[in-house]
Each structure stands twice: as structure tokens, then as C-alpha cells.
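Supplementary Note 3. Input sequence used for the single-chain structure prediction.
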Amino acid sequence: MTASVWEVERIDGPQGGRTKPLIVASVLRGAAGEPMERRDMLTKAIGLPETTEKSLFAEYFGARLAVEFGIDAPLTFIVDLSSELLAASSEQLKEWGVAPKPGQAVTYSRTGFAGVWHESSPLHIRRHPLYP
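The predicted structure, written as C-alpha cells, is reproduced below.
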């Protein structure tokens, strides 16, 4: 399985809750760098409350595994939080009381779930086209 890495273009603010995931605008680019798709996402990153490498691994692969077993689960992706974007957003991040670290993070699409459902048979599963 190959995971595509989305680029975070803008940080819009934190979502409420214990882990304060960030609401971000992200883009998936093609091989030539052209934008293929844009999405608003909820992102959990190292440096946010209660977020560790282990919890990011569990969130990402747990959702992917759920889809494989036919359980409706959020679309999860990997995004890159650049040090340049975080530096440009530093004042706003301080105001919000969050301090994400640059690097890869786990994100959920704000537009819904993986679209796994059973139609006429419990063996018929339709997956979202972004999932391999």
C-alpha cells in the first residue's frame, strides 16, 4: 500500500476537544506538481495535546483496517505540515494555544466517511475511490 502525502496550504484553527485537531486546507498534487484535489481536513500532529507517534499510527491504520473489514470509517490521510507554514502561522497558533511540530501528521477528511456499506449482500463492499 502506498500512501499519498497531502500538502497543508492553510491552517484555519483548532477544533474543540481534548486533542485540539487543526482545521486545515490541504491539496494533493500530481507527479508534475499540479493540484489534483483540495479538501478541508481535521489534522492531528505531534505537538498537539495527547498526540504521540503511537496514537497517530493507531488513528491512521485503525481507520484503514476498519475499511478493510467493511466498517464505515473516516477517510484518513497523511499530510505534511511544513516548517515554513508553521512559522508563518506562529502568532495565530500561539493565540489558539497549540504548538504543532513540522513533519507528517494524520488527517481526517471533513467531508465524510470512507463510503463502505453493504448493499444487497453483506459481501458487497464499495470503497471510496481514494482508498487503494
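The first strand starts at residue 5 and ends at 14. The CA atoms of residues 71 and 131 lie 14 Å apart.
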